Each structure stands twice: as structure tokens, then as C-alpha cells.
Amino acid sequence: MSEYLSDEEQIERLKKLIKTYGGAALTGVLLALIAFFGWRYWQNRQDVERFQAINQYQSIVDDSAKLDGDKAAQSRFISNVQALVKSDPNSVFSLQALLLQAKVTGSQGEWASAEKALAQATTLKVKDDGLIAITWIRLARAQFAQNKFDVAIASLNNVTDPAFVATRDELRGDVLLQKNDQAGAKKAYESAWAALVKRQQSRELLKVKMNALGLTPEEIKEPSPIRDTPVETTNIENGAAS
């Protein structure tokens, strides 16, 4: 059935088919009706659930800006995050809500609570490699803040997105340095810097860390946002200027 016809028009077409082909076509027609309206119901339900999830997430974001150290408000905020995760598991909104919960608790030094939220976030089946990488990195930071060095390194091992290799390896170096593993820290920092060289993106704090360990990182010439050579004027531009 054409998606451009109204429901009434499609029903009329089905009636004509039954009249033309008789009862033999009735079973097929009924199955088609069930499939069509079942799909429409499922699609509408998905739209409603998505809209509800968006509203829930926006409400959570708004509430996070109004906590001001109010423990009761924070408790309600966390309850709302968990309610969203329960009603819409494995969605980007649920993952982002848990990241926000961890940010709120972590900013107050409640690293165990932040770690719990981030660990929960890593269990969601979200198809977004970037968000997943960010989640593992933040989990490692929360664990590092609690001196859980080996656990933090294990979390970093889950970061495989190339866009986050530099951040992953710099944090790995920080953890290893706190473990008094200078050789391991140097290797991790060098790996992080190599990733930055490929991206032509310098990072001053990492350079300072490497210098402190006696390392001299390769200079990175970042691409200029303005072209060095003049661009030839096209015929269209000549016409616009005349």
C-alpha cells in the first residue's frame, strides 16, 4: 500500500480487492491490515516514548542547575535520573543523564557516587562510540581520584575510539606516575603525544608533564585557520564585484 494514501483511501482499495477476488483474498487482506496498523501503532508509540524521554532529560538538565548544594534536591535529581534510565534504558538520553549525575556528585567530591553512576552508564547498550569512550574516561578519572589506580587503568583499556587515544594515554600516564612507574608514564605520554602529532593538535599541559620527566616532545605545527596563499578570484566573484 502506498504511504501517500490516507487510511480511508487504503481501506477502500482493500474493499475493492475483496470484492474482485472474493473470500480467497480475505485472509491475506486481514494479515496486511494487522501488519499495517500494527506498524503504525508501534511507530506512534516509539514517537511518544522518544518525546517523553526528551522532556525527562531536559527536566533533569534544568534541575541540575538549581541544586546549589541542597541534599534533598540532589536526592530528587538522582531519583529522576534513575527513573529515566529505567523507563528508557539503552538510550542516549539515559547515558547523558548518568554522565550529568556523575558530574554533579563528582564536583562535590563524592567520587564513589560518581563512579557508581559512570559504571552504570557503561552497561547501557548505546550505539555512540564517542559517548562510550567519554564514559570510560570519566569513570577512570573518578577511580583515579579515589586512588584506585589499577581499576582506572583497566577502565582506560576499554577506550578504543581513535579520537580519544591522546586523552586516554595522557590519563594513563598520570595514573602510572602516581604509581611511581615513571617508565610506564613516559611511554604513555609519548603515545598520547604521537596521537596529537597525527592530528596536528598541541596540548601544553601534556608538554609540561613530559618536560618534567626529561622528555622533549616533537614540535607540533598546528594548521592555520587562515590560508597562507591568496585564493584566486573566480569568475563568479569577479561578476559580484563589478
UniProtKB/TrEMBL annotation:
GO terms for cellular component: plasma membrane. It is a single-pass type II membrane protein. Residues 231-242 have a biased composition (Polar residues). Keywords: Cell membrane, Chaperone, Membrane, Transmembrane, Transmembrane helix. The chain crosses the membrane at residues 21-42. It holds the Pfam family TPR_21. The keyword Iron-sulfur does not apply. It is found in: Cell membrane. Its main location: membrane. Residues 15-214 form the Ancillary SecYEG translocon subunit/Cell division coordinator CpoB TPR domain. GO terms for molecular function: protein-containing complex binding. It comes from the Bacteria. Residues 219-242 are annotated as: Disordered. Belongs to the YfgM family. This is Ancillary SecYEG translocon subunit.
